[in-house]
Amino acid sequence: MTTVHNTHTTPEDQPFDHEAIQESNITRHNSQTKLIHNDTSDGGMFPGYDPDHSDTGYNYNQHGGPSEYNLVDKQEAYPGEASKYQDLEYSDPYNEARAIPVSEKAAPLTRAFGFRQASLAQRIDDKKRGIPRQRHPVVVWVLSLAMLGVMIYELVLNAQNQGNPLSFKPVVNPMLGPSSYALINAGARFPPCMKLVSELTPSSQLPCLNNTANPATELCSLETVCGFGGFHDKDPNQWFRFITPIFLHAGIIHFLLNMLAQVTVAAQVEREMGSAGFFILYFAAGIFGNVFGGNFSLVGVPSVGASGAIFGTVAVAWVDLFAHWKYTYRPARKLVFMIIELLIGIAIGFIPFVDNFAHIGGFLMGLLVGMVLYPVISATKRHGIIVWALRIAAIPLAVVLFVVLIRNFYTSDPYAACSWCRYLSCIPTSINNHCKGTGLTSLTGSSV
């Protein structure tokens, strides 16, 4: 058997010359290695150790290795040398503008409204990088869970009265939900339950919640259908129906569509605004959408849904775009897409049984409240003056719209204030009596 001997010699590692580094001020980018031949007469070498190369800058007789070198002693021996080791390639360089002293961090109330005590440079940098002011959309989560509970209650209510959680008789609810009269009983916006309506007086008879025949064989009074303990002053006075429809949905499909928008678009707005400001915006837009719809929609069409509030959060994106135009990536293209999205949303409102008034009213109030509460970055004095001028103008305008439309709602003929407004949510055809009359049907006008 033949044995093959390997004649190749592996080169030895070259020692690192620490002393040369210190003397020549060499950094990590141009460090060199110095070859030093062994001097057997040097008393610093260990007995019996005779390498080809040695590091003359290292004391081989000292106890402990280089890893035990005291950094404090190093600083005392070589002042200023530590700075050479701070510019690591993998580190995040220190940015004084982004440093927030503990004493200057925002208070809880300030964080809730989204107004942080950060430097202008940091706020601009966060805006460009898309970093929100709040990590978790707490209000959106709570509202979504509450609406899920109300949706379950609606299905249970219909099951108790019709034997099925979904309405299939006398007509099918296309949203896969309860009957329109069950929704009225649960708190839908229905003007005859809120005020005296000449076409539907308290003595009027409507199908009961358990009716499944067409024409109806089970009839109940308006007061019974409206529920909530009836009318305490004998006249309809359930004003809270401006609020309760926000939590109701016409069916499972309607609920899922709204929740998809709420946990995406609305959640991002809450992260940007802070929970307190978002809470005010959400309910101001949702309530005003119902006030607007109560004035000009057909009085016999019940309406439910959180779409007015969600459209209000969409309006904040417009405030953000125009206020931070130069900090937005490709703002012109974003504006085009936002216009298209808004037109599609308004067009959907013309579908039968969809309440476009909630969309329009919620969007309008969202613009006003968003202008007041949305944290705007003003890099110049001129920009800040314009922002505060718009805020000062938006506050009284929002109040006036609420007062005027609520007062108009309780008049005998709200349509007289704007005869053409009904066409904002209705395309006149023979089927809907050209958008006139009560519009009372077996289906529900849902603000999808």
From TrEMBL:
<keyword id="KW-0812">Transmembrane</keyword>
<dbReference type="InterPro" id="IPR002610">
    <property type="entry name" value="Peptidase_S54_rhomboid-like"/>
</dbReference>
<feature type="transmembrane region" description="Helical">
    <location>
        <begin position="384"/>
        <end position="406"/>
    </location>
</feature>
<dbReference type="GO" id="GO:0004252">
    <property type="term" value="F:serine-type endopeptidase activity"/>
</dbReference>
<keyword id="KW-0645">Protease</keyword>
<feature type="transmembrane region" description="Helical">
    <location>
        <begin position="239"/>
        <end position="261"/>
    </location>
</feature>
<feature type="transmembrane region" description="Helical">
    <location>
        <begin position="304"/>
        <end position="323"/>
    </location>
</feature>
<dbReference type="InterPro" id="IPR022764">
    <property type="entry name" value="Peptidase_S54_rhomboid_dom"/>
</dbReference>
<dbReference type="GO" id="GO:0016020">
    <property type="term" value="C:membrane"/>
</dbReference>
<feature type="transmembrane region" description="Helical">
    <location>
        <begin position="273"/>
        <end position="292"/>
    </location>
</feature>
<comment type="function">
    <text>Serine protease involved in intramembrane proteolysis.</text>
</comment>
<feature type="domain" description="Peptidase S54 rhomboid">
    <location>
        <begin position="237"/>
        <end position="374"/>
    </location>
</feature>
<keyword id="KW-0378">Hydrolase</keyword>
<keyword id="KW-0720">Serine protease</keyword>
<feature type="transmembrane region" description="Helical">
    <location>
        <begin position="360"/>
        <end position="377"/>
    </location>
</feature>
<feature type="transmembrane region" description="Helical">
    <location>
        <begin position="335"/>
        <end position="354"/>
    </location>
</feature>
<protein>
    <recommendedName>
        <fullName>Rhomboid-type serine protease</fullName>
        <ecNumber>3.4.21.105</ecNumber>
    </recommendedName>
</protein>
<dbReference type="InterPro" id="IPR035952">
    <property type="entry name" value="Rhomboid-like_sf"/>
</dbReference>
<keyword id="KW-1133">Transmembrane helix</keyword>
<feature type="region of interest" description="Disordered">
    <location>
        <begin position="36"/>
        <end position="55"/>
    </location>
</feature>
<dbReference type="GO" id="GO:0006508">
    <property type="term" value="P:proteolysis"/>
</dbReference>
<dbReference type="Pfam" id="PF01694">
    <property type="entry name" value="Rhomboid"/>
</dbReference>
<comment type="similarity">
    <text>Belongs to the peptidase S54 family.</text>
</comment>
<feature type="transmembrane region" description="Helical">
    <location>
        <begin position="138"/>
        <end position="156"/>
    </location>
</feature>
<keyword id="KW-0472">Membrane</keyword>
